[in-house]
Amino acid sequence: MREKLEMAKVPVYADGNGSYKVQDYWDRIESEGLIADKTVDIIDNGDGTYEVTTTPGYVFEITVEPNKEIAENIIIGECIGKGENLSIGIRVVKKTTNSIEIEVVRAEGASNFKYSIKKQGEEYGAAEEKSETRHVFSGLTQGGIYTIKVEATKDGEQQIVEKTVQVGEIPLAIDGDVIWTGNGQAEVRIYTNETGYQLEWQKNGISEGSWTREASGVKEKTITGLVNGDIIYARLYDGISSGKYANIEVMDKIEPNATIKLSGTTVEVGETLTAEITQTDEGSGVDINKTKWVFNTEAGNIGTEASKYTGGTFAKTQETITIPTTTGGTYYLHVLTVDNAGNKKEVISEKTLITSVPKNWKRTTPDDPEWYNYGIEVNAPKLGEGMTPIVYIGENKPTEKKWANAMTEDGSMWVWIPRYAYNITSGYHQSGAEINPTKPEEGAGTIEIKFLKDSSNIAYDGTSTWDNVSGQGKWNIHPAFNYGQEVSGLWVAKFEASPEGETTDNANSQYNGIDKKLQVKPEVSSWRYITIGNAYTVCLNYNSALNSHMMKNDEWGAVAYLSKSKYGKQNEEVWINNSSSYITGSAGNSASASGNTGTTTDYTSTQGVKASTTGTVYGVYDMSGGAHEYVAAYVNGENNRLIIYGKALINGETKTKNVYEKASRDYYEDNYNANSSKYGDAVYEVSKSGGYYSSWYGDYSHFPDFYGYFFERGSGYSRGAYAGVLAFHYSSGGSTNGYSFCPVLAVL
Length: 748
Hints:
By secondary structure, the protein is mostly beta strands. It folds into five domains: 2-85, no CATH class; 89-166, Immunoglobulin-like (Sandwich), CATH 2.60.40; 175-249, Immunoglobulin-like (Sandwich), CATH 2.60.40; 257-355, Immunoglobulin-like (Sandwich); 417-573 and 627-748, no CATH class. Helix content is 10%, strand content 32%. Strand 9 and strand 10 (128-130) form a beta hairpin. Helix 7 packs parallel to helix 9 (639-650). The chain is elongated.
């Protein structure tokens, strides 16, 4: 019979997916005829055990673990006898925290019942005699372990049975809410859903004589006048014993907060900037002595370490502070608010732009007619976020050849190159010596420009048909005006790049890394000792919203060709920046002055503007001399040579670089001729050969090959007459003293 009871577990376990539904088991053994009637043959002993009488009359003790509904195991005990031969037993009917009710089972024919009980470790008390088979033991201690003894006479024999039972424990069914009421005050509401108990509580300590007991039936109590750190202890009382206590700590877990109201979000260096700060806390209150602020360039969180907040402290929860505006840049006000519970919160203001307009320039608006003048209608400059139009207000203000200038938030300066088509009307694929044998340094062809509407291929004069092929007399839409899509123009750096905050300290400008931010400003040392790959990355990192990138070869060509047109210097060569200190915007005293000969660092002077692509203060500088300028262009040669210094560039997006083909013989002249169909980049079209001094004006020319696959443009200050806007040379791309770079913005 025991084996049959075991086998009946199998399908129940399977149906329960690894557990037993106890009622399903009772139904199973009933359906299999192992018991006659589950309502009669199954006796619940009240302690997780059952006496089950089978149809043959055998009685088994079955234990359910861990509970009566869903069990992990059903243990079939040994047979404890046959029904008619079994002695009396004890079934627990009910137990509370202070009582146990039992019933004598198998009591047919029994009489003279005696009931006694003892607590664990004690002796039995006096037995109580009665004729009923039910008895209640009361006045017990909650959680106590008791042994119950029943004596009776059955069938003329004296029978004794014992059963050990643990009295129920008073539940820890106390909940509490902390409610902050203002001014650092709080109250605690304690409550229970249990019935038959009374609430007991005390504050900030446990002493048995100090409990406050609420009246019977009171299920909640609100305790007021509390502060952060107070502790309320609460428990239940069953009329005899008290249960375990719960503690509710008055702890402020609510973050404080602050609001920041700036007097402005764009101010000039030295202008007054104030911020109205309001600090609040819904809990323990603001600890004003620990609140601080700092004004810095960090847009993200700086954390809640007090030492980082070096700007100042607060005296009141609502206070207006004055913020220093000594240095230009993009800044954020960080406020650290602390409450009396030690909770901290950092609040960051919206960005504030402190601008420093270059000397002799001023801000203007896009509709200012004085902003630019190309001498003909062109695409209106497309300003991106944070860009501001600027106009020159110094002496000798030009009225023409005013290319649009703008400033980004960091004070960097940019020049607008409108979308155009061009035609090399003379000097195509000729050297300066061929054009002017007696004065090669003056030998240059001519270029005609037609500006195009928006991002279309239609010129302002109505022309809509183009050759788009290299050759003299061919009209080509300049390829630079495609940055993954057609653009209406480009913003070109006005000067060579320098590290942010750079002055004339050459040591600070010699840095081969990507964690510094670039700037584009006059009269500072250009950024050098940086590999071409790192320069490429620095340009991308400058401002992704404006699609900043390293100047490409065709973008260099776009500036050079516009400069050679009537809208730029035209027939006059751009003068050299011959500063051996690589000071941006410098100019020698001629187009080909040797290093440091008659140098001026004043780019706005009569001499200084000669080094501009327009011959006015509105053009692009440093395109002749200064540092050699890396551009994002290379011959697709041996990969290992390319990735040593240019991995980031090689792996960069197509729109951010120009790639040239390698000839079967990897030699400069062969590579030069292999790319003869390229146009717009100021290489093949404005030079005779891939080597030496074959460009217009006798500018240096050496096409990249196995000696170095990367392009550099403009040549350095030491090249003298051989430096120039049309100069090109090869490089390995390494970190070298005389090499810098320029960024470009493509506002889409």
